[in-house]
Design a protein that fits this description.
Length: 248
């Protein structure tokens, strides 16, 4: 993959960094960006790697492109244009890390909610003001946000349009840590380093089982563990662990 008009994509052996790159529109999510995100997903479904999402120009994403959104019809709503790509991102085999600076509003917030892990900066402003524009937050906020911060706070945020600061997002557990803007991407890479040090297959199973509905537990764990117990990588890692312990 290479740089495009809406995204900049940097590839590494164990991860891909995708930068939303429409600084003239504060990285607003338009159809072109959606299409390019689908291309990224297709690549990561074929060759699973960690995905780091971030934005250019001190902004993650100011929301969906209102000029496009204004002209969308009921038929467009039924297509779930943004929801479909955000769900595809959430369902990627390997973890997704969102590094959030500046505005992450509306669709930008919903893209962040689709990530497995979120880091922010003190100047982060995240929330869902959609009802003020005559629509609902229909690309994941109404079901992902309650799972992330609890139903009472999520209800307040989506009904009032209140925007959380970075500190408030940290207190709510919406982001796991705050970093200065110049350190944000390095912090995301450090988190990816910790994930990448683990067994990729075990990581993939962990992500998948975390998302299983309640009625699938504990069967989902047993099925995944049965496969991992037969893995040569499990034997290698455990043997190395025992050898290190014997040497200490």
């Amino acid at each position: 993959m290479s740089g495009t008009r809406s995204l900049t994509v940097d590839e590494f052996p164990d991860r891909v960094v995708v930068t939303l790159d429409r600084p003239e529109r504060r990285n607003a999510i338009d159809q072109r960006m959606v299409d390019e995100l689908h291309d990224v997903c297709e690549s990561l479904e074929r060759e699973p790697r960690i995905l780091i999402l971030t934005g250019s120009g001190g902004v993650f994403a100011s929301g969906a492109d209102i000029a496009e959104l204004r002209d969308r019809t009921a038929a467009d709503a039924a297509l779930g244009i943004n929801d479909s790509v955000f769900t595809r991102i959430a369902d990627l085999p390997m973890p997704v890390v969102a590094a959030l600076d500046g505005y992450a509003l509306g669709g930008g917030a919903e893209l962040a909610y689709a990530a497995d892990l979120r880091l922010g900066t003190p100047r982060l402003r995240i929330g869902n003001p959609e009802t003020g524009l005559g629509i609902i937050a229909a690309a994941g906020a109404l079901w992902r946000l309650p799972a992330l911060v609890g139903l009472p706070l999520a209800t307040e945020l989506v009904l009032t349009g209140r925007i959380l600061t970075g500190e408030e997002a940290l207190a709510a557990g919406l982001v796991s840590s705050l970093h200065e803007a110049d350190d944000l991407l390095a912090a995301a890479h450090a988190l990816a380093d910790r994930i990448a040090a683990n067994d990729p297959l075990a990581t993939r199973h962990t992500k998948r089982v975390l998302r299983e509905p309640a009625e699938r537990h504990p069967a989902a764990e047993r099925e995944a563990q049965a496969e991992l117990f037969g893995s040569p990588e499990k034997h290698r890692r455990m043997t190395e662990f025992l050898e290190r312990r014997r040497r200490t």
